[in-house]
């Protein structure tokens, strides 16, 4: 067996557990010394591969790998960058394969979402075209949970745990503060096209009908002002308050983003997030006091609130990716396969990246309540195990301890990128 | 000794640990059966006292009190309501004392902020005026940390831990995502007049010069667009990204709130939170990609991220308040007194509520860096112990377990409030 080097890189929006995938990949790669030589990372995804901006993971000892696995964000740096189609930009591929060849990369692991699976498919095809011996593997991650072919995406469970905990806690705060006048609280979560994170906040209610969140607005359902406002009013009249989860990407029936159309009391047009727009709409039309929260990066970086299930998924796909690589299974992605909801049982199976690249897995109709303003029991059964379990982690000075991993640069062997 | 009943109530914005104060007050009151009979709560603060909307804590067993102490929000309900001056509204005081007398209330504990201390002072004076035997005690709480006479306010340490953790984690996310173009992240935290929570995010940097937050905007310092933008640009040019913490209440030198003056790229006037305005200002003037987070209620309700120090403070003031009540120390508030920074040592002492009512303790000048854009080492020494320590808490189904306390209504003895 020829010993080749491995290159791992991170792409797209990062998560609380993407580094757990990296740590598991490194650990697993070290268990294949006959097949795998050096284990490198690219800085900022494929950009680092193009720029020959590589780092060496050799200095990470077991303690450092353990710490890395519990560190949010992308320790190698991520990017939002897609390779051009090979025919449009052959020079880009020339450069990429020059870098791979210069460092004898035989295994390429790309840890990302739908777009990254496309990158893997492109690189795999390009390698075959030029006869460069490479095994390219996609490794799933995204808080959006929208990767096709996998029951869920590593990163989602922890962000879902964060969002559901936030709704639970903020809902209790709102209930305390609600006296005579109606009060509403709107939580805006990530999800431009897929409402998985918004749906997950339904877990906060624990099946109680009147518990927050009272309304969930998904991008899968066209936003209807009147139906929504009628429901808000109904809830406030019964409880004195109302909590709403909004996906950032909700749209009206005409396809326009709600965040682009805002209503303030004076009729000014406002630009803002969807949560702010919805909160203002309620205030303008129903007169209730309104609060809104936009956790933004906090929801996908919350290493202090990782789901143990999600962490296990993240590690499993990292380990499986290396096993597939060593087995020469080119152009596949380790996917989570659910075997049972309760007790939750799952396994990992390879899927062809070409079959899933650039697709988007949306919240399916049977997970959405008939009125479009909440989710179903089937959705809850799906979501419940994904946030399960807490992770005991190190703290320092009252904050999570996230030591920076030592990742020295790999000496360059090529002239700078043209 | 005459046995009288005790009435406890919550006021103002609630916190992650206000119920720990309640639990400690109840536990302590039960240890004084000669002095204290029933232990009641008023629903929604002084509003519940006026409405004779009282609940009985007798059904809370030890397990329920333990759970209550780890539950965020105000379990009794809170309010934003100030009593009128007695001369303006004698009927209000007539009603209040009729309720107190109907339930033989001899001890009144009001758990709130600066305004609540004023309520305590008013009730104490009114009781004396009419010869009603009452011991009225103020019990401090506020995430704003702006209560005079106390080294810190219970509730602040946990919100500070949340805000600093959020900046730490989001800062790591931002660093991962920052490639060639500059990126900024703005975290807006609570604080209309006092910048304590914004200052606390400085803990995220752990003393490293280039670590987030790079800039902290406090309401104590007039906002200067040009100086701020110059600093952002400087940071982005060095690091590729910049993180900013903004107090919601920052103002320009002319006294106008920054949140009222927004700049979008097209010159439209926007209404928004201070964080959004500052992020948009950066984007409009420097062209950097911008993200902003507004945790809103999430930051003060984060029972999952309580500071052990803060929890200890919250319990201590609840216990001390009852001890003062039994000792007949009318119109005082238990204050946290710091004895040493490191090791952190503190005690609780009574202060006269009349000396502190309606005052606001701002971040002092020696805690603010000379350029007004960050805090000093003295601030860090003050802040550090307040976020220290994690609390092991029960979880259920992947979310914090917050069982609702059983608080049956006390039968009414009076006709409804006129």
Automatic annotation (TrEMBL), chains A, B:
Which EC number(s) does UniProt give? 2.7.1.90
A Pfam family per the record = PFK
Query: Could you say which residues are annotated as the site Important for catalytic activity?
Result: 141
| Main EC class the enzyme belongs to | transferase
Q: Which residues bind diphosphate?
A: 13
This enzyme catalyses:
beta-D-fructose 6-phosphate + diphosphate = beta-D-fructose 1,6-bisphosphate + phosphate + H(+)
| Any one GO molecular function term | 6-phosphofructokinase activity
Q: Where in the cell is it found?
A: Cytoplasm
Control of this protein's activity is summarized as: Non-allosteric.
Which sites bind Mg(2+)? 114
Name one cellular component (GO) term: cytoplasm
Q: Which residues form the active site?
A: 144 (proton acceptor)
GO BP, sorted A to Z:
fructose 6-phosphate metabolic process
Which SUPFAM superfamilies did the record assign?
Phosphofructokinase
Show the InterPro entries listed in the entry. Answer: ATP_PFK, PFKA, Phosphofructokinase_dom, PKF_sf, PPi-PFK
Return the similarity comment: Belongs to the phosphofructokinase type A (PFKA) family. PPi-dependent PFK group II subfamily. Clade 'B2' sub-subfamily.
What is the protein name stated in its UniProt record? Pyrophosphate--fructose 6-phosphate 1-phosphotransferase
Q: Which organism is it from?
A: Pseudothauera rhizosphaerae
The gene coding this protein: pfp
């Amino acid at each position: 067996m020829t010993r080749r080097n491995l290159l791992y890189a991170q792409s797209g929006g990062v998560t609380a557990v993407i580094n757990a995938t990296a740590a598991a990949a490194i650990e697993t790669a070290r268990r294949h010394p006959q097949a795998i030589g050096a284990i490198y990372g690219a800085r900022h995804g494929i950009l680092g591969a193009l720029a020959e901006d590589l780092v060496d993971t050799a200095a990470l000892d077991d303690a450092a790998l353990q710490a890395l696995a519990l560190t949010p964000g992308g320790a190698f740096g991520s990017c939002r960058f897609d390779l051009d189609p090979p025919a449009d930009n052959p020079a880009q591929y020339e450069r990429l394969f020059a870098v791979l060849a210069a460092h004898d990369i035989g295994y390429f692991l790309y840890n990302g979402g739908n777009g990254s699976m496309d990158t893997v498919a492109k690189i795999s095809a390009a390698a075959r075209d030029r006869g460069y011996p490479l095994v390219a593997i996609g490794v799933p991650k995204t808080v959006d949970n929208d990767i096709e072919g996998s029951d869920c995406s590593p990163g989602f469970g922890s962000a879902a745990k964060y969002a559901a905990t936030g709704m639970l806690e903020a809902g209790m705060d709102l209930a305390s503060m609600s006296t005579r006048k109606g009060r509403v609280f709107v939580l805006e979560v990530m999800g431009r096209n897929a409402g998985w994170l918004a749906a997950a906040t339904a877990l906060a209610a624990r099946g109680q009908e009147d518990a927050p969140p009272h309304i969930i607005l998904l991008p899968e359902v066209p936003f209807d002002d009147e139906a929504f406002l009628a429901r808000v009013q109904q809830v406030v009249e019964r409880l004195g308050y109302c909590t709403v989860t909004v996906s950032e990407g909700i749209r009206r029936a005409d396809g326009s983003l709600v965040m682009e159309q805002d209503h303030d009391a004076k009729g000014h047009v406002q630009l803002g997030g969807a949560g702010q727009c919805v909160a203002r709409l309620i205030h303008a039309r129903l007169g209730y006091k309104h609060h809104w929260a936009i956790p933004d990066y906090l929801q996908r970086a919350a290493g202090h609130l990782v789901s143990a299930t999600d962490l296990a998924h993240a590690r499993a796909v990292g380990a499986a990716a290396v096993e597939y690589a060593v087995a020469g299974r080119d152009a596949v992605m380790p996917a989570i396969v659910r075997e049972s909801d309760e007790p939750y049982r799952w396994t990992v199976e390879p899927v062809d990246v070409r079959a899933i690249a650039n697709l988007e897995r949306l919240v399916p109709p049977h997970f959405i309540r008939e009125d479009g303003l909440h989710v179903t029991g089937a959705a809850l059964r799906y979501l419940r195990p994904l946030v399960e379990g807490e992770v005991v982690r190190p703290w320092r000075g009252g904050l999570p301890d996230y030591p920076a991993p030592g990742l020295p640069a790999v000496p360059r062997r090529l002239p700078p990128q043209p």
